[in-house]
Amino acid sequence: MPINLQQARAAIEQAQENALAHQAQQGLQGPRQFARPSVEHVSLGRGLRVVILLVLWALGSVVSLLLGLGAGGLPGAGISLPLGVIVSFFVALYLSHIVRIAAQWERGVVLRLGKFHGLKGPGVILVFPVMDSVRFVDTRLLTLDIPHQQVITRDNVPVRVDGVIFFTVRDPERAVITVQDYRFAVSQYAQASLRDVIGSMTLDELLSERDQIQSKIAAVVESRASTWGTHIDSIRLLDIDMPEDLKRMMSRQASAEREKRATITKAEGDRDAALNLAAAAATMAASPGAMQLRTLQTLDGLGSSQSNTVVLAVPVEVLELAKALGKARGES
Question: Which tens digit of pLDDT belongs to each residue from 17-40?
């Protein structure tokens, strides 16, 4: 029986691990989530609210004790003290929640009874519970990622493109009031603009004009995001993924282009060498002593090592004399 229980427990644990692994794999294969900060508002006033609560609670308890002693002595204090402790606790709790602190990079959009009341912060702000509600907006440079988008270019090539958006909130009031979620709105509009802009270009333009594409997408998104109180700092394309067969064809094309340039370069080198040799031959033919000097230089280069021995069977002068005799015979 213990062995069966252990086997059952091991089977349950294995099933749980398989389920977790399957969920993780599904999460990786599913759509990517937008980049969001882990905490949109940093609660800086919690310690201050606790101090205010304790001080006001203590003061209320002391006041209730003194009032009870003054009204009815110890019996009156025994009645007023518990009641004062309870009442002062709720009063102190309410008053402590009035004080809120906004960080240097935050602005608080305050709504009073559902209407826009004002923009407050940074520092200590007063927000009255029940009547007021506040939403803190981060005015620093924010980052959102653009997940992989399947786009077909103008020359019917399917590509997958992802990127990142850098933007700031310039008008917190409009960012909160005019749009439900300005982060989600900016990211969705950027995705649609990316598909529209890349879909109107060819693959060669997409690969060679990345800076122009990024600027164009940023300008399109900025024209709309500015009405939401946000400013697009820049949009950068991170990765452009193409089908594997297309990558192989582009690799072969690049290899063929390099081979073509190498063949042309070699042919141009051979042509220039032939022209230079012809010019050198013409110069030597015009100067009788040039060929002799060249011959002597060649012999000097061959004889620089002791292991080489050069034997001239016919002197150069004899060759020149034979050439002169042959020319004279031809003229006669």
Answer: 565 455 444 443 444 444 454 456
